[in-house]
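Reviewer comment 2.1 asked that we show a complete input and output for one of the modelled complexes. We chose the NAP case, as it is the one discussed in the main text.
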Amino acid sequence: MQGLEKAGFSSGNSILVLGGAGGVGSLVVQLAKQVYGASKVAATASTGKLELLKSLGVDLAIDYTKENFEELPEKFDVVYDAVGQGDKAVKAVKEGGSVWS
Ligand SMILES: NC(=O)c1ccc[n+]([C@@H]2O[C@H](COP(=O)([O-])OP(=O)(O)OC[C@H]3O[C@@H](n4cnc5c(N)ncnc54)[C@H](OP(=O)(O)O)[C@@H]3O)[C@@H](O)[C@H]2O)c1
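Response of the prediction step:
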């Protein structure tokens, strides 16, 4: 929650959570969706955890074993990096948005 606050995340913003199926990421996904009222929540995980992401409220579940999230045309207001991929994370954020890691 502190990360979301420091990133300036607010209602109506979109977010990409790197490592959305982990201990940190799964909480960030749920906070963003259910407490902050995110407009869209995307998250990365491996193939076997995509259904878990969806059950947590993720709108766009990205399989990091098959897709490079930083190459997607869609950009996000906030990228929350719970994996340690800062170099790639900056490529997925909108102009004026922020990355938290
Ligand atoms: N837990 C805490 O209280 C806490 C507090 C402060 C900081 N941290 C830090 O936050 C980070 C995450 O901790 P955690 O407790 O959430 O770890 P965790 O529960 O072990 O989760 C790590 C997640 O990262 C995913 N992952 C691995 N490589 C990935 C990749 N390339 N792209 C996307 N996802 C990937 C794994 O998914 P797959 O199994 O699908 O690969 C797994 O779900 C660590 O650096 C930790 O030191 C944790």
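Residues 18-19, 21-25, 44-46, 49, 64, 82-83 surround NAP (CB under 6 Å). We note this here for comparison with the apo prediction described in Section 3.2.
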